[in-house]
Amino acid sequence: ITAEGEITSLSCASGPAFEGYHIHDGTRATRGAIERVLITPEQVYYQTIEGAPASGICGSGILDAVAQLQLAGVLNDNGRIEMGSHPRVRQDGDQPVFLLAGEEGRKEITVTQHDVREIQLAKAAIQTGIQVLMAEGGVSVQEIDRVIIAGAFGSYIDVPNAVAIGMFPPLPLERFQQVGNAAGMGARLALLSTKVRSEAHALCSRVNYVELAKYPDFSRVFARSCQLRPYVQLL
User: Fold this and answer.
1) Arithmetic mean of pLDDT, 1-17
2) Which residues have CB under 8 Å from 134's CB, separation 6+?
3) Closest by CA position to 153, among listed 37, 79, 64, 47
4) Average of per-residue pLDDT values in the chain
């Protein structure tokens, strides 16, 4: 985040959940992975990569699923799957699950209570990082001009769903910019241009790095950010 020419940065340890890891039916973003989800009170609609039969759920899909489950009333603000809240909710062993896909003769893809907890922790890390950056920069939500979302995962996430569960601040959608593999592009530019390398070195000298885990009130803000509700500034 930048304010008045100053740059403040930090690192959020959001873990591998957004890459499909530690998710019951998680998978990389490959053919057949569920990448988009829409849930209504009666139906579930999903899109897979290349339109292939559902084989698992990737990062953008699990984020969509959790947001849609919360919006449909299947999840409460604390992330608990409510039994009886939807025809697709059922008990599987010691935890409730939501049947996302499972046409006759094909693999069942479910969202488990454990999956929801993994996404809550990942989104809370990102939300807490944003909270700290804004507090350090003295910036309010209304003053944010642009949010740049980089990386392969960032290219495919549904921004309104991320906003719905509080991962991102409630800004007009045109202020979010998904730019893809910015790190890869930066590396290529640095290899090709001495001028770009000089600019990068100069930029580094202006960056103030914040150690997130040592930040005052980190634990309190992180715990509050685990809730699935729209963004509220806590610092």
Assistant:
1) 80
2) 1, 140, 141, 144, 233, 235
3) 64
4) 92
